[in-house]
Amino acid sequence: MAKKYIKAGELELKEKLVYIGRVAKVVKGGRRFSFSAISVVGDGKGHVGYGLGKANEVTDSIRKSVEDARKSLVEVPISKGTIPFEIIGKYGAAKVLLKPAAPGTGIIAGGGVRAVMESAGVTDVLTKLLGSSNPHNVVKATINALKNLYDAKTAANKRGISLPELFSI
Length: 169
Description:
CATH topology of the largest domain: Ribosomal Protein S5, domain 2
Oligomer: single chain
Shape: elongated
Radius of gyration: 18 Å
CATH architecture of the largest domain: 2-Layer Sandwich
Number of strands: 8
Distance between the termini: 25 Å
Order of helices and strands: EEEHEEEEHEHHH
């Protein structure tokens, strides 16, 4: 499957800051601080991306992370406000379990997973963090899971059968 490029300029993207980290570099005169920021952008209609920015000032690192996030947009198949099926996303030592939920459940998630789901436009989902809770890897694992999702129409096309045949199996 070829990766489809999504133009960030055509979408109304909302930004969410997930995490700001302060990094200290020890130099001769003491400590020099810099900042790293993770941001998530999404249009709430099935497009989401994440970015990492590093700078000596907090505002610069946030700006850089948002710019980076706009370059990494992926499309998410959403059916009736939830995801099509259960999936586990992995990145490093972080694992994220995503489960479809009934309408009205809401987003049962914490930290980076919640930010990604809200930005993508998913309204009902159950999630569980397995393994590392490092915000960088959690966000990347969530995006990895969302990238590997596909809808029923795609599944039917892959198998070479019609949509009604898929559900009669």
